[in-house]
Amino acid sequence: MLRGMTVLLVCQLIGEATVRALNVPAPGPVLGMALLFAVLLWRGAPDWLDQVGQGLLRFLPLFFVPAGVGVLNHIQLMRAEWLAIAVALLVSTIITMIVTAGALMLFLRLTGGRKASGHATECH
Amino acid sequence: MQPNVTDIWVYLAQTPLLWLTATLLVYYLSDTLYQRLGQWPLANPVLISVTALIVFLTITGTPYQQYFDGAQFVHFLLGPTTVALALPLWRYADRLRRMLLPISAALLIGSITSLLSVVAIGRLMGVSDVTLRSLAPKSVTTPIAMGISEQIGGLPSLTAVLVIVTGIIGAVIARDLFDRLRLNDQAARGLAIGVASHGIGTARALQLNAEAGAFAGLAMGLNGALTALLAPILAQVLGL
């Protein structure tokens, strides 16, 4: 637990420092994720790291709650246009999801990539 | 009796303990409700928790800063957990390597689609120019989105709200949308969720399927950097 958490924090710390030092257009933790990914490709994932990581990832939705409550401070900003904004966000999110997934499926087919993974329809 | 209760409240409301406990308790109850309702999309635990806490803070007249003093301990874990997204991604590294080109192309198209569609729909709906600029980076993770918003002349604080709402929308609709489209490729599902609804969507994708979660985390990270490069260019082209 201690070792795993330390590794995650060290990666985040290096990420944060790099972002500040090189003006990278990404948040520190995202760069930390890239760094850890590189380390994993090189050394693999030991159990002690995997356990801490999976333990944290199970609660990822919870960790967004405090920032989400921050909406409270800015509800006023949306008051005048909330309906238009809600429609724009909902429709754009649907379009983006469909286009992205559709584009990947198309390119996979074009490059002769793999068939559908995970739960194939006939499994249900 | 009355002053006593008030005294205790005044004391507790200023301690981190109360708001940290409230955050965990509300999330625990929301998640239990969500499971009881058979994971009904609108009972999404992030949506319910955030709404319940906002109502509670409003009723008790608690400023957000006071709440955050306690909740920050939960918020802090967002950083190391984002780093930990490398673990599921690593497990699918082989698949990722084989799909590198299609994934890069789909990411680029998804990123542009997100920017263009929200601006186009916003215009159709007649929102103001400042709101349009604040809407543009809505699909990327908050710190990047706020930076982009500032750069193209939006309101960073409005963008922060729009980003969170977009994430919750993505988390709520993802499963049913893909089920209805019979899109069963977990990599494609994950990539789409990560591109459209960043971390909050990624958290949902992880619950749905490990592979979807892995690709959502990847998409979130790459789409952030990509949008930071694309948004200023598109803002100029669109005359925002």
In brief:
The complex is a heterodimer of chains A (124) and B (240). Chain A is mainly α. Chain A has helices spanning 2-22, 28-43, 47-57, 60-63, 65-69, 75-78, 82-110.
Describe the structure.
The complex is a heterodimer of chains A (124) and B (240). In chain A, 73% of the residues lie in helices and 0% in strands. Chain A is an all-alpha fold and 124 residues long. The radius of gyration of chain A is 20 Å and the shape is extended. The model of chain A is unreliable at 116-124 (pLDDT under 50). In chain B, 83% of the residues lie in helices and 0% in strands. Chain B is mainly α. Chain B has helices at 2-13, 16-36, 45-60, 64-76, 78-84, 86-91, 93-98, 100-124, 129-135, 142-151, 156-181, 186-208, 210-237. Chain B contains 13 helices and no strands. The radius of gyration of chain B is 20 Å and the shape is globular. The termini of chain B are far apart. At the A-B interface, α1, α2, α3, α4 and α5 of A face α2, α3, α4, α5 and α6 of B.
